[in-house]
């Protein structure tokens, strides 16, 4: 009995340390270059919430989204993304090519022999975009230059005027993609969501319960977000429709994670805490607990909109 109790105590200590680490990351000081939204990157068939990027297929749209997202992470204005997308359209057709003239590679046809990085690095679209931007911002007055001159200053192309033909398409792509921006919940609010859910660990699941003594899955998530000053609907299916989708692999602590798609929407919901784990109220006969969200019935993730934040009363 003593060994079992000791094991349980150790497990609780490890759990507390894990969640504390997640909360620490969320409430820590801002990281240089941090940004306020996340792009809903298009899926392979070129579709996304609100429709495809006009004139681009799925592969091209996804690469354009990576370019735009990287520019946002660096804190650059949208003009930089327009220049970068137009450049990549001319150089590679917005495709991550494993070949090119001499040793040119990737979206921007960058050359390992010219100091752009290794082959493996250049074939990483995020890396390639970052390297393009790093050189672009060293060009004096790049923001005010015609696109052709700004792109040429980075690329040293034999056909500098060719970039101009892609500027309208690049502008449409950047406008469409930044319009799909998903607001990032401020760290202190995400931490408040997780802290509330942590405090409910061990409480029994009761269908229809909203606390404080017991919860069902969506009752727990609703109350956790209320604790952070954000209003979400009561049931899982409505919570799924309420928040902008977050691309798989880009979920963050505090996001909602959904399971078991049914006719009206997902039938179960939990709260991401990081490391592939969530806090959720599973089912009748069980309790609020930490579990993996890597399950066969995983539907996806959302990030409740900050537009749903409660306004302070007068």
Biggest sheet statistics? 6 strands, antiparallel
Our count of helices gives 10
**Which word captures the global form?**
elongated
* Residue runs with pLDDT of under 50 for 5 or more positions: 17-35, 43-51, 307-314
Return the average pLDDT rounded to an integer: 82
- Rg of Cα set: 23 Å
Distance between the termini: 56 Å
Helical proportion, percent range = 25-40%
- Strand residue percentage: 5-15%
Order of helices and strands: HEHHHHHHEHHHEEEEEE
Q: Strand order, biggest sheet? A: 3-8-4-5-6-7
Strand element count = 8
The class by helix and strand makeup works out as alpha+beta
Describe the structure.
The chain is an alpha+beta fold and 314 residues long. It is built from ten helices and eight strands. A six-stranded antiparallel sheet has the order 3-8-4-5-6-7. The protein has a two-stranded antiparallel ribbon with strand order 1-2. The longest helix is centred in the first third of the chain and has 26 residues. It starts with a helix and ends in a 12-residue tail after the last strand.
SSE topology:
Blueprint: H1 2-27, E1 37-39, H2 58-73, H3 78-92, H4 119-122, H5 125-136, H6 147-155, H7 167-178, E2 181-183, H8 187-199, H9 217-227, H10 236-242, E3 245-246, E4 256-262, E5 265-274, E6 277-280, E7 289-292, E8 298-302
Antiparallel strand pairs: 1-2, 3-8, 4-5, 4-8, 5-6, 6-7
Helix pairs in contact: 1-8, 2-3, 2-5, 2-7, 3-6, 3-7, 8-9
